[in-house]
Every structure is written in structure tokens, then in C-alpha cells.
Design goal:
With 257 residues, the protein is an alpha/beta fold. Helices cover 27% and strands 23% of the residues. The chain has one domain: Ribonuclease Z/Hydroxyacylglutathione hydrolase-like (Metallo-beta-lactamase, Chain A). It is built from 7 helices and 14 strands. A hairpin with a 4-residue loop joins strand 12 (154-157) and strand 13.
């Protein structure tokens, strides 16, 4: 894992959206790739929302980034959104609940109350179409086109027209080419087909046995429906120019079959 002092994050990738986390090493077929279990802080005029917590091992880094940004922005953390229960996305939920006693959790809560029975009153079930108002921007729960778990849920920010797809755009990057902390369009040497395939094989194995054209088509429909300008994945570099990067993403998704 990258040392915290060498970490290029946090980075504001769009107005009021801060990319948080730290790189992790992945070993695959003799190569060492880097990937993120990223979280994002969405700052609104009436409070902020944390999207994902990162892996439990990332908590010291992510919590420090959240604390510093909230102090700089003069904001308070009111909400936490989790795409699903897997530890790279929700591993820090317990400590975030302890750190921010007024924060509420929004997602398909399902069995969260079994882990945190004393916090059940702070767990708010969220379904597709539900909205959280942050003042100058709204956060909307949207269809999870590519699921990791049955309870997966995606989110959309109206302020920057940003999609938060959890595992939907999962891929690694090349540390040796200096991709850490860069957006996808800055990582010009990145072979998206290769790194999407690596992640699919390790984390989304079902994609190798499905017709991914169906999912790619629906994904493009969702991007058009919400006029998405930014894609902020949990396990990939953020995408700021969809016209450049989405054809590569589609090719990578289909190549993994």
C-alpha cells in the first residue's frame, strides 16, 4: 500500500466532490497493479455526505481527509451513503457512526441493524428514486446496472452531474506509470481493456459468463438519462470526459466475457 505521506489524495474532481482514499497493491499473473477502495465527500450548502467509507484498513487515512475537508469547507457530515455491505465499501461504518453521532446512514440497510443494533434508528432504507437534499445539490439513488451484491445501489449528484457506481467501473491502474491520483483521461498509457478484465476476473466473476453487451447498453442509457458528466467509481480512476473514456470502458466490459 502507498505510504500516506506519498498519497496524492484527496483531490477535488468537480465542484464540491472530493476523491478520498489511498492506493492498494494487487498482484495478478506476475504484475503488480494499483487500485482504490475509494470514498468521496460530497459538500453541499446544507451539509455534506460521505459516499463509501473505504476498507477498514483505510479508516485512519479517509477519516483524516474527511475531517480536514469539512474544517476547510466549514461543513458538517450529515449523511453516509453505502453502495453495498462489502468491506472495501463499508468497512469503516462503525467508526464513522462513532465519530459523527448526528450522521445518518442511507442505503439498502438490510442486515446492518444486526451489526449495529444500537444505531438502528440512524439507518435509513434507500430505494431507487429516493432523494437526499444537501441544499444546493441533491443526491438521488439510481439503478445499479452492474451489481456486486443483491443490495447494490448507485447514486447521482445533481450538482456536478456525477454518478457514483460502486463496482460498476472497477479497474486498476499502473503505479509505475504514475497513474495514482490521476483521472482516467490523464492516465494516457492505461490499457482499460486489460485492467477491467483483471478486476472482473478477481471481483466480478459473473461478468465472464454474461452477455455484457446488455449491461453496456443499459449503462449508456443511464448515462444519457441523467446527462452524467462525471463518473466517480469506488475501484477506478474518476472519469471526467465520457466521450473519450466510455468507448474504452465498453470495450473492456465486453472483452471480459
Amino acid at each position: 500500500m502507498m505510504k500516506p505521506e506519498d498519497n496524492p489524495l484527496p483531490r477535488e474532481i468537480a465542484p464540491g466532490i472530493f476523491w478520498l482514499g489511498i492506493c492498494h497493491e494487487q498482484h495478478h499473473k506476475g504484475k503488480v497493479y494499483h487500485s482504490y477502495n475509494a470514498a468521496y465527500l460530497l459538500v453541499g450548502s446544507e451539509g455534506s455526505m460521505l459516499i463509501e467509507t473505504g476498507h477498514q484498513g483505510d479508516f485512519p487515512v479517509v477519516s483524516g481527509q474527511v475531517r480536514d475537508i469539512l474544517a476547510k469547507e466549514g461543513s458538517t457530515l450529515k449523511h453516509l451513503f453505502l453502495s453495498h455491505q462489502e468491506t472495501p465499501h463499508a468497512g469503516g461504518i462503525g467508526r464513522m457512526l462513532d465519530t459523527y453521532p448526528d450522521m445518518t446512514v442511507h442505503c439498502d440497510v438490510s442486515d446492518y441493524h444486526l451489526c449495529f443494533p444500537e444505531e438502528a434508528h440512524r439507518l435509513r432504507d434507500m430505494e431507487i428514486g429516493d432523494v437526499i437534499d444537501l441544499g444546493n445539490r441533491q443526491f438521488i439513488a439510481v439503478e445499479p446496472v452492474i451489481r456486486d451484491l443483491r443490495t447494490s445501489l448507485w447514486g447521482f449528484d445533481t450538482g456536478a452531474r456525477a454518478l457514483f457506481p460502486g463496482d460498476g467501473f472497477a479497474y486498476s491502474h499502473y503505479h509505475w506509470d504514475g497513474h495514482c491520483g490521476k483521472i482516467a483521461e490523464e492516465a494516457t498509457s492505461l490499457d482499460l481493456a486489460e485492467v477491467l478484465g483483471v478486476f472482473a476476473e478477481r471481483a466480478l466473476f459473473w461478468t465472464r459468463f454474461a452477455d455484457m453487451n446488455i449491461y453496456a447498453d443499459r449503462l449508456e442509457e443511464l448515462l444519457e438519462e441523467f446527462d452524467v458528466a462525471v463518473v466517480a467509481p469506488s475501484h477506478g480512476l474518476p472519469i471526467l470526459d465520457l466521450s473519450v473514456t466510455m468507448p474504452k470502458v465498453r470495450a473492456g466490459l465486453i472483452a471480459g466475457e
